[in-house]
Amino acid sequence: MGDMDLFAKLVADHHDPLVQISHAVHGIATFPKLSAAIGSRMVWREREYIVWNLNNYLGLANHPEVRSADAEFASRYGLATPMGSRMMSGETDDVEQLEQELADYTKKPAALFLNYGYQGMVSLIDSLTTAADWIVSDAENHACIIDGIRLHRKGRDQIRMFSHNNIDQLESYLIEIDRVRAADAGVLVVTEGVFGMSGDQGALREIVELKKKYDFRLLVDDAHGFGVLGANGGGTGEEQDVQDGIDLYFGTFTKAAAGVGAFVASQADVIWQLRYTMRSQIFSRGLPGPIVAGNRVRLQLMRTRPELRERAHTVAGELQTSLTSSGLSIGKTNSLITPVYLPMDPLAALTFLTRLRHEYGIFCSAVTYPVVPPGIVQLRLISTADHDIGDVGPTVSAITSVYHESTGQ
């Protein structure tokens, strides 16, 4: 018989370039084991490096108040509390208070705390839309949004992807949808507050302006803006002064707060309905009590310690200015994420990273095609409040030196 075993089919093509690359970079560019206390300097393979690839924007991972609170709550609650899904037996005062604090912080009537950002977004899209509805999404949206759309039970003929931040194309799709949509069809536009790879902000102000002409709801995934953008850290909507125009504001505790969990904030009746329809929350255990209570402490620090945001932005500004002055391209970033686009053979990326680490003690992430166009290697540096201006000089010097030596330019 010609049938192939499922496992045999999965691992059949050992000559696939992606398979070969994955084995070559494993433990180096992918799945590296960093140790020591989380901060701007960590240990990899028994050597200390300046680290630029941690989601710890405000430096809260090892903040003394956070560490103290985490230890206290772990002792008080243990990891078994609550024992069950929130709907059945896992509701607590802490999670309800956290939701009210999130609603206040994001200037929305209500909020729903979610176990994880990825599963939360996938489930949110499913709960929000029916088979009759349309979804219009930025082409560079995060994988959780893409998978939420893919896994949704609607046909592809009601999905449109507009080029990154291309408002003219978005409007053309809205015109098309208005012309053909059924009477019971709603429209959901999805974008990000800050795009995690390129570091540029979503065109929220322009999208909100379109709401004056077209009937749609706007969902913004602000994982990389929540806590670090805006006068009070309220996120990209606050930064662009359009928070009122965002119908569903989605954020996580995994970036600025160095915690676990996510949330969506919106009008109260919508949040109530989501509470009873988001399958990823209904059919999974609530997060342990120490995590939820610890998030309240993290949120309080986000609200009351603006100097943490200021420090991270000062480092990012210096880093981005220095890289640009050195002739390197950082795209259109206007956040704490700094991409560095290097015209280089992707096969040279591993050698580049190895030299950057071993010769200069700089640890950052890099991606190649298909994440970026062929012939480009993109470094991704994340500035945090743990970094110091003194970290910038050696980092930029190292990147510049290795790049010029590698390419002969």
What structural category arises from helix and sheet content? alpha/beta
**How does CATH name the architecture of the largest domain?**
3-Layer(aba) Sandwich
Q: Supply the CATH class of the largest domain.
A: Alpha Beta
Q: How many strands appear in the DSSP assignment?
A: 14
Query: How many structural domains in the coordinates?
Result: 2
In angstroms, what separates the terminal alpha carbons?
57 Å
* Residue share in β-strands: 15-25%
The CATH superfamily of the largest domain is Type I PLP-dependent aspartate aminotransferase-like (Major domain)
Tally of alpha and pi helices: 16
The main pleated sheet reads as: 7 strands, mixed
Task: Enumerate the strands of the largest sheet in spatial order, edge to edge or round the barrel.
Answer: 4-10-9-8-7-5-6
CA radius of gyration is 22 Å
Weakly predicted, low-confidence segments: none
- Arithmetic mean pLDDT: 92
Estimate the global geometry from the Cα principal axes.
globular
CATH-defined topology of the largest domain: Aspartate Aminotransferase, domain 2
Along the chain, the helix and strand elements come as: HHEEEHHHEHEHEHEHEHEEHHHHEHEEEH
Helix content: 40-55%
Protein name: 8-amino-7-oxononanoate synthase
Pfam family, one: Aminotran_1_2
Keywords: Acyltransferase, Transferase
GO molecular function: 8-amino-7-oxononanoate synthase activity; pyridoxal phosphate binding
